[in-house]
Amino acid sequence: MQSGIGVVDKAVGILASVADAPRALAELVDVTGVPRATAHRLAVALEAHRLLARDTEGRFVLGPRVGELAAALPDPVVSAAAPVLAWLRDECGESTQLYRRDGAERVCVAAAERSSGLRTTVPVGSRLPLTAGSGAQVLCAWADPASLAGVLDLAEFTPRALADVRRRGWAQSVGQREAGVASVSAPVLSADGELLAAISTSGPIERLGRSPGQRLGPLLTAGARRITLALAG
């Protein structure tokens, strides 16, 4: 697609080319069709703005500013989850979290903390293993089995347990990831059934009990549905 503003179209073409693979100047010229002198001038200008950088071989690659700009965009799942996490925290009386999978780990991307008393705190950005805990169970239960190679060998749960999680729609953990801590989680799905995240609540076992899923599972699944509906508009 062309905007009609030549310099912008050429610069975008260079960025798109580098997004596919690292490019030496000669490759930029070949792929984009931009004259060598112009391609060099634009690439150096984009590098000055940190939209391009150089790898160890001197080839142009996407620069850090691209990631910074992307990170500044509102995350629709996190935005939709924020009021639901607060609602769940108030309903459950415990801290709530939203997790996404990243390889063999899960990352806390949003949280609503209990304001007082003994609580389990999971700061946003925390990385936890995908091998223990109710959030990990949910992210594994709805994952492509082929993507779990090596994960289940180290997990505190079995494939049969994951099948049960998927059947009932929620997972519970009692001292599985951390002694003294219990949690309940449910999957956040897109309108077409794709797994987006896991929503969780966690707290001390003495408050949640040894079977927290029976009491809190319906709340977690209701919260997950609220997020799905909010994303669907």
From TrEMBL:
Domain IclR-ED: 65-233
One of the protein's GO biological processes: negative regulation of DNA-templated transcription
Domain HTH iclR-type: 5-64
PROSITE patterns attached to this UniProt entry: HTH_ICLR (PS51077), ICLR_ED (PS51078)
Domain of life of the native organism: Bacteria
Keywords linked to the UniProt accession: DNA-binding, Transcription, Transcription regulation
MF annotations from Gene Ontology: DNA binding; DNA-binding transcription factor activity
Protein name according to UniProt: Transcriptional regulator, IclR family
Family annotation (SMART domains): HTH_ICLR
InterPro entries to which the protein is assigned, alphabetical: GAF-like_dom_sf (IPR029016), HTH_MetabolicPath_Reg (IPR050707), Tscrpt_reg_IclR_C (IPR014757), Tscrpt_reg_IclR_N (IPR005471), WH-like_DNA-bd_sf (IPR036388), WH_DNA-bd_sf (IPR036390)
Pfam families recorded: HTH_IclR, IclR_C
